[in-house]
């Protein structure tokens, strides 16, 4: 029986070399049951290559991928049966109805009873439109039908590559709510690659950031965002204030600005203690301005400012 700590996807020491270039370098992470896991990286970081290895489209140079406990390289069919996958917009037959599309895909897979089609239609909430031609569907509805197709085989893991591409804000919000429902109510693990970092922050439980082929940061979204706070201090005398702030053990970064301002990375809960320490040294504090960093700030910091894609 699965528990909260059950690992659905385990990636250990994954590497991929093409020619003389190592594209993915010793990547390791885990995705737990019922978890929404975000996978972020700038152009050329190795993100797409990693996803292709996860679904068996590219063979790793070294490393181990286990899905549902099965080794992808040694037990391919058992492992890949645990996965449903959509890369960007799903490929559907527009002149067929939604139901006919699902029936067609079900015939390509072993042991999909007709009742399972009804189940996935309810899961993606397309009951009222499932017998309409797909060409009449909105992009958001097509995305949900694609997810229904990916869920036909009852996978433990759903891999979505750029699932919000082309969706309007209402469609993105609807998809976010739906994905969280799959995770929380159905216990399905969801692995998402997306360039919309605000949505990743709202949707995902944990994220991994890949840059230049290596994982540079992995952690819970709430902990990553909460632990990367910036506070701007206005102090006088400026030099004395800078030196006092620099000497505090919980301040991890310090940037001297103009007009008596200093920007530091520090825990939010230490603001009052820091203010007391400055005042005790006869340093006047005329302004304190906290900034809560977003996932986008952390991403840019970890990847050297490279744009995401």
UniProtKB/TrEMBL annotation:
InterPro entries associated with the record? AAA+_ATPase (IPR003593), ABC_transporter-like_ATP-bd (IPR003439), ABC_transporter-like_CS (IPR017871), P-loop_NTPase (IPR027417), PP-bd_ACP (IPR009081)
Q: Which residues form the ABC transporter domain?
A: 9-237
Which residue spans adopt a coiled-coil conformation according to this UniProt entry?
Answer: none
| Pfam families in the cross-refs | ABC_tran
Q: Enumerate the GO terms in the molecular function aspect.
A: ATP binding; ATP hydrolysis activity
- Does this entry carry the keyword Nucleus? no
Domain Carrier, first and last residues per copy: 269-309
Respond yes or no to whether keyword ATP-binding is given for this record. Answer: yes
Q: Which UniProt keywords apply?
A: ATP-binding, Nucleotide-binding, Transport
Superkingdom: Bacteria
Q: Which PANTHER family match?
A: ABC TRANSPORTER, ATP-BINDING PROTEIN
Family designation: Belongs to the ABC transporter superfamily.
Query: Mind telling me what this protein is named?
Result: ABC-2 type transport system ATP-binding protein
- Which source organism? Lihuaxuella thermophila
């Amino acid at each position: 029986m699965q528990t909260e700590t059950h690992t659905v996807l385990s990636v250990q020491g994954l590497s991929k070399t093409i020619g003389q270039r190592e594209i993915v370098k010793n990547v390791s992470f885990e995705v737990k049951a019922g978890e929404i896991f975000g996978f972020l990286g700038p152009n050329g970081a190795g993100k797409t290559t990693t996803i292709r290895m996860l679904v068996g489209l590219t063979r790793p140079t070294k490393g181990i991928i286990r899905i549902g406990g099965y080794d992808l390289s040694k037990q391919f069919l058992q492992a890949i049966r645990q996965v449903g996958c959509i890369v960007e917009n799903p490929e559907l037959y527009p002149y067929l109805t939604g139901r006919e599309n699902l029936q067609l895909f079900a015939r390509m897979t072993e042991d999909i009873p007709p009742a399972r089609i009804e189940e996935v239609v309810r899961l993606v909430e397309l009951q009222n439109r499932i017998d309409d031609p797909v060409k009449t569907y909105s992009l958001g509805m097509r995305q949900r039908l694609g997810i229904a197709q990916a869920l036909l085989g009852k996978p433990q893991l759903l891999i979505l590559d750029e699932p919000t591409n082309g969706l309007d804000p209402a469609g993105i919000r609807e998809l976010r709510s739906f994905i969280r429902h799959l995770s929380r109510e159905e216990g399905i693990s969801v692995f998402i690659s997306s360039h919309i970092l605000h949505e990743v922050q709202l949707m995902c439980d944990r994220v991994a950031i890949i840059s230049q082929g290596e994982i540079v940061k992995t952690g819970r979204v709430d902990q990553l965002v909460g632990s990367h706070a910036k506070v701007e201090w206005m102090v006088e005398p400026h030099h004395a204030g800078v030196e006092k702030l620099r000497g505090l053990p919980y301040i991890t970064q310090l940037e001297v600005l103009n007009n008596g301002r200093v920007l530091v990375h520090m825990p939010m809960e230490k603001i009052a203690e820091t203010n007391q320490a400055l005042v005790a040294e006869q340093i006047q504090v005329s302004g304190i301005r906290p900034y809560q960093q977003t996932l986008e700030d952390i991403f840019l910091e970890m990847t050297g400012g490279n744009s995401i894609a």
